UniProtKB/TrEMBL annotation:
Its main location: endoplasmic reticulum. Residues 130-267 form the Lipase maturation factor 1/2 N-terminal domain. This is Lipase maturation factor. Keywords: Endoplasmic reticulum, Glycoprotein, Membrane, Transmembrane, Transmembrane helix. One of its GO terms (biological process) is protein maturation. Involved in the maturation of specific proteins in the endoplasmic reticulum. It is a multi-pass membrane protein. It is found in: Endoplasmic reticulum membrane. The lineage of its organism: Eukaryota, Metazoa, Ecdysozoa, Arthropoda, Hexapoda. It comes from Anopheles minimus. Belongs to the lipase maturation factor family.
């Protein structure tokens, strides 16, 4: 009897979906970063006195654009201003925070709420929407298939297919591309500047590392060997930790790192350790654990040899493909030994083979699920089995639909492989409108030859001195103390948008017209998006935008940047400028800011939301996020201590 109970406890413990639980908790952390970052900038970007008011989309947008929970604002007495946006951000952040600190709130309903709320926010993002938003909504939708409905739920049959879909890449021809990228990336940090100073041979070797990361290592994600998948995981962890250090990409890299957890198994040592540290349930010890571990180790005993063999093959292949040699000065030299046509042919083969591999693995998982169905002994058991299979069927149809539609953007990586089927493209467009399937990496397929920056300037005299508006994260000055700050997990989408503007024509950046109008009005919510130490004390008479070329300095220089003014980005604007007013009229932009909309009758809730914003607004976004995660860590630690105290007593 004791042996049977021990085996039952061992089987129950082995059935704990640790990877699923860890993945969902991590997704809550990513959602928390996204909601807090959106909240900090919402009033200045989308409030009634912001750059692109949400009310403009909710009232005059298309049916698809108006599909948002913000439509409930007037019903709650908040109107369609920033108070309704604040409420959604706070609701989403609260649900994400609770899901992060305890598994009891990390369930299906929580992920439905977080996805719905963030989708509503992305709907009104307009010009400030970024690919990180798309990736979060896509991964969040798949997490809905993965999340348990009840806390008591163990492993779901759909889990393997959902995890496979979550396995989720910007190709440079020149080996000098990575060094140029350090200088021209959207929001670089001082780590990027120091890395830029390293020898050219290092940068070319690093570029080969990126090639391997994007073209070779992703194939290891689907290897049957646990050791090989773990090797691929740590390879990409190293890559994305460097990305986090080099640039202020916000929650993008943490999201990718979260998805990489799907490469691990429930019995992986790191997964078990993290699950025990995050679990808010009493830990169970089972007999026979050492036997199980030795059995699993025996199954993957050749994993270490495979990893060594794969590493040697990649080193040898890189050595041959890039003709590694040495110069007369003893420096390493690299030169591709393949032509561009050969490279494109290789890419075509990979683009066509990748979906086929994933499809085969998904079918294999599905057939395994069908073959593992339990036999039915009674009518009641039959009904339960039918209900379970019906849910599995619906989830499988959704999963395969998402997979087939993702082939469309995947095929567009090269023009020669692009799918032109009207049926597929229309179906993809429908899912893309919900951001369930998206295309990524287009902004990295072409390296910028130099860094150009838009600088905002103001003056009260056309012939007088022009002063510059300061930014929190975007390069705008050569002063060392203010030129390359860290945002850590905070995503400054306002600063990030200037990177898009500097690399395109002025006609494509219509959001700058409302920005100039708000600065001429001296609107406080918009000024809060800028560095408060470098804004005028009162509304200026004239504003212009200049285009500068920024270049990194060397170790011998005192500052990080040198800059050179190239030209005017926009002409000089004043408050009564007819051209500015005409552009704003074309955008259906209201020149007057209404103090209250007709639907803002819930004064108590509005006072509460305004009080929260005044309190939070005094804290810079990156520091606020760090404080929130420190609080979450302390709560998780406190739960662990209480759990250990309860077990000891």
């Amino acid at each position: 009897m004791e042996k049977a109970n021990s085996e039952a406890r061992s089987q129950e413990t082995d059935n704990v979906p640790r990877v699923r639980n860890l993945l969902l908790r991590s997704m809550c952390a990513v959602y928390l970063m996204a909601f807090v970052g959106f909240y900090c900038q919402a009033e200045g970007l989308y409030g009634d006195a912001g750059i692109l008011p949400a009310s403009r989309i909710l009232a005059n947008g298309t049916l698809k654009e108006r599909l948002s929970l913000l439509q409930l604002g007037p019903i709650l007495g908040l109107g369609d201003g920033h108070e309704a946006i604040d409420l959604l951000c706070l609701v989403g952040a609260t649900v994400a925070f609770l899901g992060l600190i305890t598994r009891a709130h990390c369930r299906l309903v929580s992920f439905i709420v977080m996805w719905s709320v963030y989708f509503s926010l992305v709907q009104i993002s307009q010009s400030f929407r970024q690919q990180a938003d798309h990736l979060l909504l896509e991964a969040g939708f798949l997490c809905i298939l993965l999340a348990p409905t009840r806390l008591s739920d163990r492993r779901h049959p759909m889990e393997d297919i959902a995890l496979l879909l979550l396995n989720g890449c910007p190709l440079w021809w020149s080996l000098d591309g990575l060094k140029r990228h350090y200088e021209t990336m959207p929001l670089p940090t001082s780590y990027s500047w120091y890395t830029y100073q390293l020898p050219d041979a290092f940068h070319r070797a690093s570029t080969i590392y990126v090639y391997l990361s994007e073209l070779v290592v992703p194939w290891l994600f689907f290897a049957p060997s646990k050791a090989v998948r773990r090797y691929a995981l740590w390879w990409h962890v190293f890559l994305h930790l460097n990305i986090i250090g080099c640039g202020n990409y916000g929650f993008l890299s943490p999201l990718v790192l979260t998805l990489l957890l799907t490469l691990l198994d429930d019995d992986d040592g790191m997964v078990v350790w993290l699950h025990e540290r995050l679990s808010d349930e009493p830990q169970r010890t089972t007999r026979g654990k050492g036997h199980n571990q030795s059995k699993k180790a025996d199954v993957d005993r050749y994993g270490g040899r495979l990893v060594k063999g794969i590493t040697l093959l990649m080193v040898a292949g890189s050595w041959l493909c890039f003709s590694v040699g040495s110069s007369d000065e003893g420096q390493l030299t690299f030169k591709p030994s393949f032509s561009r046509d050969q490279y494109l042919n290789f890419m075509q083969t990979m683009i066509r083979a990748a979906p086929l591999l994933v499809f085969v693995l998904m079918v294999k998982k599905f057939l395994t699920l069908l073959s593992s169905q339990d036999s039915v002994g009674s009518l009641a058991e039959g009904m339960r089995q039918f209900s379970k299979n019906l849910g599995l069927l619906v989830s499988t149809i959704v999963a395969f639909t998402v997979f087939f539609m993702s082939i469309v953007p995947h095929s567009r990586l090269l023009p020669s492989t692009s799918i032109s089927s009207p049926v597929m493209t229309r179906a993809y467009g429908g899912l893309h409108s919900l951001y369930v399937v998206n295309q990524y990496g287009r902004h990295l397929t072409k390296m910028r030859p130099m860094r150009r920056e838009i600088v905002l300037e103001y003056s009260d005299d056309l012939n007088g001195t022009w002063h510059e508006y300061g930014f929190h994260y975007k390069p705008w000055t050569i002063e060392r103390a203010a030129s390359l700050p860290y945002g850590w997990l905070y995503f400054p989408r306002f600063d990030f948008k200037f990177y898009d503007g500097s690399g395109s024509k002025t006609d494509a950046q219509k959001w700058i017209y409302p920005l100039i109008q708000r600065l001429l009005e001296h609107q406080r919510p918009v000024l809060d998006l800028l560095d408060g130490r470098h804004i005028p004390a009162q509304a200026p008479k004239y504003i212009r935008t200049s285009l500068y070329r920024f270049s990194y300095t060397s170790f011998a220089d005192r500052d990080f940047w040198t800059r050179e003014r190239l030209t005017d980005y926009f002409n000089v604007f004043s408050h009564d400028d007819t051209h500015l007013r005409e552009k704003l009229k074309q955008m259906n932009f209201r020149l007057t800011v209404e103090p209250e909309s007709s639907g803002s009758w819930n004064w108590l809730l509005r006072m509460l939301l305004d009080a929260i914003r005044r309190f939070v607004g005094a804290i810079e976004g990156s520091y606020l996020l760090v404080g929130v995660f420190i609080a979450a860590g302390m709560l998780i630690y406190t739960q662990q201590q209480q759990q250990r105290t309860g077990q000891s007593t």
